[in-house]
Design a protein that fits this description.
Layout: E1 10-14, E2 21-26, E3 34-39, E4 61-71, H1 91-98, H2 105-116, E5 129-133, E6 139-154, E7 160-171, H3 174-177, H4 182-199
Antiparallel strand pairs: 1-2, 1-5, 3-4, 4-7, 5-6, 6-7
């Protein structure tokens, strides 16, 4: 009996308006560990207001710290069964991540053309929506907050062949984008899934030695 291949995590980049997939960047190796942080939005701040102690003013600020490793000798295959054509190095895989935090050359050219004609820009360009996929149960709309690449080995033409990418992302919630945005819908589905699994933990007070008085 063959063992099924492990599910690979990674990023799916969506058109923020239409929701269509623009590109997919899988992790070459699933991270050994991920650091998550949830900061409750209790609204109390530094006021010390006792009436606010248990009030939640919105979803928590949730961040992920991820270290992803890439090595040219073991590139994942595409849906067609072949390794992505990137010239035998990691420049393509790294570029696919880096372009997520950069306006496109077409957008920059358009901004310059508008400025040269004296047209004021109404709003900055909107980047693709990154969706962090960590298995079927965690599909999270995120914003990439920090991106650090450590290139560890090169070929003879100074192209990277082994690299480590440290990513810091923040989960986008309905507070950030509203309920009608694609990211808002993804967040709500994630929260509903989390609530369903939390409901499965059904211990009684005696499990922790608590006695009602």
């Amino acid at each position: 009996m063959t063992t099924p291949a492990p599910q690979r995590g990674g990023f799916v980049f969506l058109d923020p308006e239409q929701g269509r997939v623009l590109r997919v960047v899988p992790f070459q190796y699933n991270p050994d560990s991920i650091t998550r942080s949830l900061q409750p939005q209790d609204g109390r701040g530094d006021t010390g207001d006792r009436l606010e102690a248990l009030r939640l003013h919105g979803p928590p600020l949730e961040t992920f710290q991820i270290d992803a490793e890439f090595d040219v000798v073991d590139q994942p295959t595409s849906a067609a069964g072949a390794a992505p054509a990137a010239g035998g190095d990691l420049y393509g895989a790294l570029s696919a991540l880096e372009t997520a935090v950069c306006p496109t050359s077409a957008q920059l050219t358009q901004q310059n053309d508008m400025a040269s004609r004296g047209i004021l820009q109404i709003a900055p360009v909107e980047a693709p929506l990154p969706v962090l996929v960590l298995g079927r149960r965690r599909v999270l709309p995120v914003r990439i907050m920090d991106f650090t690449v450590t290139e560890e080995a090169y070929d003879g033409e100074l192209n990277p062949v082994r690299a480590r990418v440290a990513l810091s992302v923040r989960v986008l919630t309905v507070d950030d984008v509203g309920f009608t945005h694609k990211a808002g819908g993804l967040y709500l589905r994630h929260q509903q899934s989390r609530e369903r699994f939390a409901a499965l933990v059904a211990y009684g007070p005696g499990a922790v030695g608590y006695t009602e008085t």
